[in-house]
Design a protein that fits this description.
The chain is α+β, with helices and mostly antiparallel strands. The protein is built from four helices and 17 strands. It has one domain: Sandwich (Jelly Rolls), CATH 2.60.120. Bound molecules: calcium ion (CA).
Length: 307
């Protein structure tokens, strides 16, 4: 069963791209980095299923069901402990706060950015991440879309919430993929705090919080950011059937709220625009999983993933 994701909207907020809930009130300064609890609105919470069937839930009776469903959705957002019957990206969690022997490291929120930059600068040399606590159990996922949730969901998804505090972590996903048809593609994405994509050994996208990103010497976007800091990556000529080595990292520095998303764009393709005039790009998916989210589309053929 593919991961189940809830799309939440409260009456006094609007949802921006992609999945972040932004209050209508003026933005706060530093507290904006802190996690805001989801506020439920029973009449507007929709549960989405692969069939596309959408139904409205309301009232106290369903509150418990919603809570349980939300917990499952958050657990699955980073991936599942077991493959769900299809090829998938494999994700490994690293905790930069401790060594493999679970001794404290010298890293702090200031040096977190340096470690990320060093990893990317070294062409994603895993020896750099292997200096830190590497969780044995991986997760598997067929898409990168983590709606705004508490960063503690990452250690929880990997079954290590008792030994990994929810900050200064990195998840490294990797897999071999192929696009559905020949074309010129680019990934785009955003994260709170950091996301980066590498294709065939070359970094093609780095996005996220500015104070977490490596210097431009590591990677620089060739095009302007899209709406809400959605950053486009490098254009790539890709052929269906050709095996592409794909690496993606996501990471959280201070703790609090996390989200991350990877979309893609095919040159020459015309995409519909939403009510704000922003192109609605397809979510990068390796398995069909329809989601009723107006901020991206999931009606395109999935990419192929190889074991
Ligand atoms: Ca964050």
């Amino acid at each position: 069963m593919p991961p189940l994701v809830l799309f939440l909207r409260s009456p006094d907020s609007e949802t921006s791209e992609v999945g972040r809930v932004i209050p209508n009130a003026p933005p706060r300064k530093s507290p904006a980095r802190r996690c805001r609890p989801n506020r439920w609105s029973g009449s507007e919470v929709s549960t989405l299923r692969p069939s596309g069937l959408k139904f409205q839930l309301s009232g106290l009776i369903v509150a418990a069901l919603l809570t349980a469903t939300a917990a499952r959705a958050q657990d699955a957002a980073f991936g599942s402990a077991e493959k769900q019957g299809q090829s998938a990206l494999i994700g490994i969690l690293y905790d930069l706060k401790q060594t493999q022997q679970r001794e404290p490291t010298k890293e702090n929120e200031r040096t977190y950015r340096t470690v990320i930059a060093s990893f990317l600068q070294s062409n994603w040399d895993e020896d750099i991440l292997n200096r830190y606590f590497r969780v044995t159990r991986p997760v598997y996922t067929t898409q990168i879309f983590i709606p705004t949730i508490n960063a503690d969901q990452a250690p929880k998804a990997f079954g290590v919430s008792d030994v990994v505090k929810p900050r200064m972590w990195v998840v490294h996903y990797k897999g071999q993929v192929s696009p559905p048809v020949n074309g010129v593609y680019r990934f785009s994405g955003d994260a709170d705090d950091i996301i980066a994509v590498r294709v065939n050994g070359r970094t093609v996208l780095v996005a996220g919080q500015p104070d977490c990103q490596p210097p431009p010497s590591v990677w620089k976007a060739s095009d302007a950011d899209g709406p809400n800091r959605r950053r486009p990556g490098d254009w790539l000529s890709l052929k269906a059937g050709d095996i592409i080595d794909l690496d993606i990292i996501i990471g959280e520095r201070p703790g609090g709220s996390f989200y991350g998303v990877v979309l893609y764009e095919k040159k020459g393709e015309t995409y519909p625009v939403n009510e704000r005039g922003h192109a609605v790009l397809p979510l990068f998916q390796l398995a069909e999983h329809r989601m009723d989210n107006p901020l991206f589309r999931t009606d395109r053929p999935p990419w192929t993933c190889f074991d």
